Amino acid sequence: MPASEPLKKTPLILDTDIGHDMDDTWALAMLLGCPQLELKLLVTAFDNVETKTRLVAKMFRRTGNTHIPIGLGIKTSDLVMNQAAWLGDDDLHDYPGVIHRDGIAAMIELIHASPEPVTILAIGPMTNLQAALQRDPSIAQKARIVAMAGSLFIGYDGKPIPEPECNVVCDIPAACAVLQAGWPITCVPLDGCGDVVLRGERFARVANSSSAWARVIIENQQAWAWKDRCAPGESSILYDTVAVYAVFADAFCHTQTLSLSITDTGMTVPAPHGVPVRCFTGWHDREAFEEFLTQIIAP
Ligand SMILES: [Ca+2]
What we know:
Number of helices: 11
Bound molecules: calcium ion
Distance between the termini: 25 Å
């Protein structure tokens, strides 16, 4: 490619249950630091999307990203999110950016308006995507899915047996609808991301960085209701960051295309008559990925 030719960016919609587990915050920071990606819309997913939208708005103010539209997804509960302490009483008063009250409509409109296929990066339960498909099934012809979802051969904490994974089991009908919609799907199950943790020197670089996103991440981890899940000087498990990487690269990972179906109990299982899904099933070089991530967050 000639040096003068600009990098072609992948237009992206992020569908995220941010505010629950910390990895969504890392994933958001990571994708905004990837020159291969252009975030066109963020839609908040699952539980109390009102407070999650306020959380994203505060993060965007702090990091200079208020030009990115935020959409509210489908509210499924009033659960107090785990990062509520960092949000405090910050609200949307005077927020300078665009907030779409109907994030599903904003998603559909963006997909149809885009001159090239949009990638939807789904890193939470897929309630919003099921709603979008119900309103307009034709979006599946103009978008592709990259999702952190499922557990094929490895469960949580490296257990050598698969188990129902949170993003699938929280809304099984939605995961089934997304699987069967007919769009290309790339999936990062627990097998390919359940062991990503920044430790030691890499975590210290983030903790000591003055970059705006590093500060937001560290402050949120300190305020996080589940912070005791992190050992001192370590991140939480950063599942969703691998899905960001999967949008544009795979060199650090093993991939294979498998026919998948979803059981009534939320298991994602290879099945002869399932749907072909490109799966990230393990690591070629996890250390290299963790270094890549660290350099983006703490440049
Ligand atoms: Ca998530």
